Amino acid sequence: MIIDKKDLEAFAYLATLPCAHDTLIGNANTDGTAWMYAVAGLHPLWTHYDYPVQQGPGYHRFTFWAYADDADTDPRIAEAVKALNIRYVLTSTPVVLKFAMPDGLVSLDKSRSWEKIYDNGETKIYEWRGAQKECGADDQQH
Questions:
Q1: Among 86, 93, 92, 37, CA closest to 63
Q2: Residue 80 and residue 119: Cα distance in Å, rounded?
Q3: Residue 93 and residue 31 in contact, taking contact as beta carbons nearer than 8 Å
Q4: Which of 5, 47, 71, 136 is deepest in the core (most CB within 10 A)?
Q5: How far is the first Cα of the chain from the last one, in angstroms, to the nearest whole number?
Q6: CB under 8 Å to 5, separation ≥6 — which residues?
Q7: Three-state SS for 7?
Q8: Any idea which architecture 5-132 has in CATH?
Q9: CA–CA gap between residue 56 and residue 107 (Å, rounded)
């Protein structure tokens, strides 16, 4: 299994954040973060490992996967974030077997459009700093 105690702690923390249960959580298809759905009731963008294709269905999913860290200069990222209803991104190391972290998630720390709000040394959570929809009134119930 690719998840460990640090991942579980991050999933639990993410589940307490506003809108986390009402949005898709941006994640990689190369690590264990897809398990957030079973462990914390969250909705990951990638629900399974997708190797060797690693692109998944849909224009917006691919754009997010490949370019999320270019959000400061690439308007397609804001479009994809809005279309997919993403507020948070969760990344974790290590990745499965010989997979690689998607290019778009490698340098989120360098983007002004994403703020790192959690880092336990293995698992990181980022929050979108661009325009966001209001949370559903029932989000705080989760």
A1: 86
A2: 24
A3: yes
A4: 71
A5: 27
A6: none
A7: helix
A8: 3-Layer(aba) Sandwich (3.40)
A9: 20
